[in-house]
User: What shape does this take?
Amino acid sequence: MQGRLSAWLVKHGIIHRSLGFDYQGIETLQIKPEDWHSIAVILYVYGYNYLRCQCAYDVAPGGLLASVYHLTRIEYGVDQPEEVCIKVFASRRNPRIPSVFWVWKSVDFQERESYDMLGISYDNHPRLKRILMPESWIGWPLRKDYIAPNFYEIQDAH
Amino acid sequence: MAATSSYMASNSFSMLGWRSSNKQLIKRSVYSVSAQQAEVEEEEVKKAETEKVEENKKLKQEAPTMSPPRPVEPQLNVQSKNMGREYGGQWLSSTTRHVRIYAAYIDPETCEFDQTQMDKLTLLLDPTDEFVWTDETCTKVYSYFQELVDHYEGAPLTEYTLRLIGSDIEHYIRKLLYEGEIQYNMDARVLNFSMGKPRVGFSYDGQLQDVK
Assistant: This one.
């Protein structure tokens, strides 16, 4: 099963892997972290000028970390814009993914949150630091192997 | 936070300005930890633990099993330093309801808050006066604080570490409460039983209280 974008990428010899379609029929592609920045530029030139959503999750205990990008192609006079979902997987030991801040500026806070919650370090992000947790916090709270510290006010104050 | 702004005319210490009858008790210990800065390796950590008990009595009772708090000489002419906006307007602290730990020296008499002395940790115990404290229970908390600071020697001096220490002290205070060593102060200004409602014949067996 191959979508339109995947066929286009194959035609131009760009390495990717199709992950099928989600429940809304949006094409999902997996891209290697080392290819992601150049492919992001290619996709922007292709016409995906709107990054609708960026999020990240922990795939499995001890497994990979994923960074997800939903891209949309916004044009005049289009009521069904093209959309695509990109997933980039990084190893848990050294999760490094190139930042697409310089392609889509709106990913700034999203990548900071992904860094804060899951510890994915985005290369070339201008100010990658914690955004939700205190800066002295230790650990990545949304990883599956995170153990919450036994802080008093969090759990016991009432 | 009225740590230093409540500079009271009387010589009684008041963390929060509404109580003028607070009496202070100072008990300090000297020991060394290494702080976050690389140039500061071994530091003297002094704890000026301020507590409201009876008239200014120095604690002498020592529980047999726990290490007695080590004495610390008081400082003279402490000035408030590095409290202004140009220094960030904030301080390194862990504040929960019963435990406030500051990485600073707080003068127990004048409440001067010297934040240049970040090698010292100051514990303010139960400033809202929710529990009835005796000298003995205060000593327990202080020596537990001292043990914890000794335990975290070498850890970076961050808010996270202070929070770990403060949370452990809060759990310890709750353990004391469940064992019946301290009681709720029925004359407290806010009487919401923040560590669980009082019970009759409740024995603490090491388990946490059920949350409804």
